[in-house]
Each structure stands twice: as structure tokens, then as C-alpha cells.
Design a protein that fits this description.
The protein is mainly α. Helices cover 72% and strands 0% of the residues.
Length: 277
């Protein structure tokens, strides 16, 4: 039992779970528009997500405390190195244009972690994008939207139609909603200078705003040119699941409430839309 727990904790802490969630949203995009999946792009996204998230979370720890790293963190570092090798392998199999698009998102991830802004700016922690008050959730939503919708569609040569734009906005808003339980969980830890949504408007108003966004996502589906009942039903179900997790989220969450269960919603989304296809 202890071994299984350690494997599960490694699965979460190494960001394999979030990488699978991101790949699930890429596949949701492919299935939504009835496009063949590019396995090389999926491989790149999977290993890129692991590399990016580990870089964001563990860069400071590895940089300043490398001699006192716990064994589990050393194992994650080794795994991250393997993931980076996988990233390079799949990068060589993608077109230059697709790589340039991913590079733009990679730069945002890099500057999200690495200081580059003037210190006199009003920042939470350091001089990176993550430290700018109130911007964190929107940066995350932007990167996820580009990686899971815009770049896969561009890679396929699919015209950026009205439906693609709506899909991109839906994913952008969904990521914001899915991030709210994390921000609610971190209320007791985050500095007030970070200016997260719950810090700015309070717990109740955050849930109300998230609820409004969920119904906006559902409503946007009705404006698509090609509306399929089955996929619309799946979208509604997934949004209602997201709503429940948002409404029941609190500061003192059970362990892995957000990092596993909320992150698993895109995987459920993929399974449901794959089932109707």
C-alpha cells in the first residue's frame, strides 16, 4: 500500500497527471472537429507539459537547495530530464512553423518563472510574469488555449473558422474556471500582492463568477456553425461536473481534491466525447 501511495504521489508531483489532462484537451479538439490526431504533436505536448511544469515548480528549489534535495525530488529531476529528451525527440518530428508556435508559448513559460522585469514594479514575488498582480490565471489560460486548440488546428492546416474561435474562447474560460479551486485552496498561503480572483472578490463571489463563466461556455456552444447534439451534451455534462467541483471547493480541501480530481476533468471530457464518436 505504501508503494502504491508513493507511485501515486510521484505521478502527481512529477506533473504526469496534468500532462495527460493537457493532451486530453488536445484530443478533444481533434475529436470536436473530426480531425486525425497528430501523435508527434501529442508526444511533444505531453513531454513539454512535464518539462514546463517541473521547471516552473522546482526551478527555485533545485537552484538554491540542490545539495539538500529530498530523494523524491531528485527522482523527479531525473524524470524531468528524461521528459526533456522526449521533448527534443518529438520536436525533430514537427514542422518548423509548429515549433515556432510552441516556442512562443515556451517563452511565456520561461518568463513566467525567470525574473526579467524591473524590480520597482508592483510584484508579488520576484520580477517574472508570475509575480505581476492578478495576471497569473490569465497567463495559464492563454498558454493552455494556444497549446490545446490554436496550435493543433494550425498544425493541421485547418482554417481558423468561427467554430475554432468559439472553441478557443470556451477552453480559455474553462481553464480559468478549473483554476479557481486551486486559487481557493491557496487562499491561506498566497501573498495578498498576488491578487488572485478569490483574494480580490472573496470566496462567494468567486464561485458566483465561475458559475457565470460555466453557463457562458455552454451558451457559446449554441453559436457554432456546426452544432452536434452529442458533443453539446458532453460539453454540458463536463461543465456541470466542473461546476460541482467549484461549488464544493474550499480553503481546507481534502488532499488531491484539486491536483487530481479537478485536473482529471479533461480526461473525463475526452472519454465522453470519444465514446459518442
Amino acid at each position: 500500500m505504501l508503494l502504491l501511495r508513493r507511485i501515486f504521489e510521484f505521478y502527481i508531483n512529477s506533473h504526469m497527471h496534468v500532462a495527460i489532462a493537457i493532451c486530453s484537451l488536445v484530443l478533444v479538439t481533434y475529436l470536436t472537429f473530426d480531425l486525425p490526431a497528430n501523435t508527434d504533436l501529442l508526444g511533444f505536448v505531453f513531454f513539454g507539459a512535464i518539462s514546463g511544469y517541473n521547471f516552473i515548480k522546482y526551478f527555485g528549489i533545485a537552484r538554491f537547495h540542490h545539495r539538500r534535495l529530498a530523494p523524491w525530488l531528485r527522482h523527479i529531476q531525473i524524470f524531468a530530464l528524461i521528459a526533456f529528451m522526449g521533448l527534443v525527440f518529438f520536436a525533430l518530428r514537427l514542422s518548423i512553423y509548429t515549433l515556432l508556435l510552441f516556442l512562443s508559448m515556451g517563452l511565456i513559460t520561461f518568463f513566467y518563472t525567470i525574473p526579467f522585469l524591473p524590480k520597482k514594479m508592483l510584484l508579488y514575488k520576484g520580477t517574472n510574469l508570475r509575480g505581476i498582480s492578478g495576471i497569473k490565471i490569465y497567463v495559464v489560460a492563454l498558454v493552455w488555449t494556444a497549446v490545446t486548440v490554436v496550435i493543433p488546428m494550425e498544425d493541421c492546416g485547418y482554417a481558423i473558422s468561427n467554430d475554432v474561435i468559439i472553441q478557443a474562447f470556451q477552453i480559455f474560460l474553462y481553464v480559468i474556471v478549473a483554476t479557481l479551486p486551486f486559487e481557493i485552496r491557496d487562499l491561506q498561503y498566497d501573498s495578498l500582492k498576488l491578487a488572485t480572483i478569490p483574494q480580490q472578490i472573496g470566496l462567494g463571489a468567486t464561485k458566483a463568477a465561475g458559475t457565470a463563466l460555466i453557463f457562458l461556455i455552454i451558451g457559446m456552444e449554441l453559436f457554432k456553425d456546426e452544432l452536434e447534439i452529442g458533443k453539446t451534451v458532453v460539453l454540458v455534462l463536463v461543465m456541470l461536473i466542473s461546476l460541482l467541483f467549484l461549488l464544493f471547493s474550499k480553503k481546507n480541501q481534502i488532499q488531491y481534491y484539486s491536483s487530481f480530481w479537478v485536473e482529471a476533468i479533461p480526461i473525463v471530457w475526452l472519454l465522453l466525447i470519444w465514446g459518442i464518436n
